[in-house]
Amino acid sequence: MTATFSAWSIERYGAPDRLTPVTLPIPTPGPTEVLIRIHASAVTRADGMMRAGTPRFARLFLGLRRPRQNLSGTGLSGEVIAVGDRVSRFAVGDAVFGEAGLKFGANASHICLDESSILMKKPHTLSHEEAAVMCDGPLTSYHFLHKLTQVKAGQRIVILGGAGSLGSAAVQIAAAAGAHVTATCSTRNTFFVAGLGAERIIDYTREDFRALPDRYDVIFDTIGVSSFGAAKARLTDTGHYICPVLTLRLVGAMLLSRLTSGRRAFFAATGLQAPEKLRSHLDHLLTMVDVGTLCPVLDRVYPLADLIEAHRHMETGHKRGNVVVV
Ligand SMILES: NC(=O)c1ccc[n+]([C@@H]2O[C@H](COP(=O)([O-])OP(=O)(O)OC[C@H]3O[C@@H](n4cnc5c(N)ncnc54)[C@H](OP(=O)(O)O)[C@@H]3O)[C@@H](O)[C@H]2O)c1
Questions:
Q1: CATH number, domain 137-271
Q2: Ligand 1 proximity of 262 Cβ (cutoff 6 Å)
Q3: For strand 180-185 and strand 156-160, is the pairing parallel, antiparallel, or unpaired?
Q4: CA 75 to CA 310: how far, in whole Å?
């Protein structure tokens, strides 16, 4: 009898209830692949966008009428249970975490990934739940803060959306770099975000950071609630506005701000960077985990069977840190 595994499929773009549980034959790893039994996988805003097919221009890459790769999930953590005959980085029994990327299929019980992909050995200091989210908030915020801009000790930075997946990691990463961190969040999250290392909290339900006189070397708009144009006056003369949410307005701001020597706007799709580069960022993040300056934040953990509920919670726009299925 063929051995099978559980996964979730998206046949048509739409709401969370478009997700359908499926049972598929367990693949045999190719020569450079490892077969992973997944213990935990992330449920991210990017996963929600891929499920919904939004923004619509993303369908040029994801599939025009329906997802080209129809399985759900990208970030994962688990255990290697078989390896191809040319695999050298991993062995059976290794605990690993990483990112399925555009192959998708991480919200599942098993997956085959190439050893050259974004796959790392999981340290004991991280649980599978924590490791499964490392490639979302922590990796993206690291890339934005250390590569798109170069956050330095003594700089002043404001993180818009300090309680989310990217925001909760960004506060920790910027504080560890020695920056003076201000973060925005709602009233219920003020103590939580301060505890991550923000020196100052702006409760966005009471105050607009743009109405305050402070100026920042970096504005990291983790959820795209502002814009370069609207936030520019709060930047120092050479300050950077960085934002992971792609809009035409942001593309325009990036292009126009390149023409000036002053304030700049930046976007990047972190998951599209070369795997070697992202693995090296993950190495730095694991060092931070080791020395205690980074701890991935978990909001809710659902059983894999409740993926639809997990997507609904993720899409409230008010999760605290990360959502995981196990
Ligand atoms: N470019 C890339 O490579 C890349 C990679 C990964 C993700 N992304 C994108 O990054 C974005 C952020 O993802 P995420 O997972 O970090 O988001 P998220 O976790 O869903 O953000 C939720 C948080 O936003 C806060 N929030 C909501 N409205 C706010 C406001 N007006 N001001 C301040 N905070 C507010 C909420 O806090 P309260 O509950 O306190 O309101 C909540 O904690 C998504 O659009 C995602 O697609 C891009």
A1: 3.40.50.720
A2: no
A3: parallel
A4: 14
Q: Which of 209, 165, 204, 208 is nearest to 187 (CA)?
A: 204
Which ligand 1 atom sits closest to the C-alpha of 186?
40
**pLDDT tens-place string over residues 9-35:** 999 999 999 999 999 999 999 999 999
- Whether 105 lines ligand 1, by a CB cut-off of 6 Å, is no
Residue 27 neighbours by CB under 8 Å, 6+ apart: 35, 110, 112
Q: Is the CB of 58 under 6 A from ligand 1?
A: no
Q: How is domain 4-134+297-325 classified at the architecture level of CATH?
A: Alpha-Beta Complex (3.90)
What pLDDT digit, counting tens, does each position of 261-305 carry?
799 999 999 999 999 999 999 999 999 999 999 999 999 999 999
Helix 45-52, helix 307-314: angle, nearest 10:
110
Domain boundaries, the chain: 4-134+297-325, 137-271
The reply to whether ligand 1 has any atom less than 6 angstroms from the CB of 81 is no
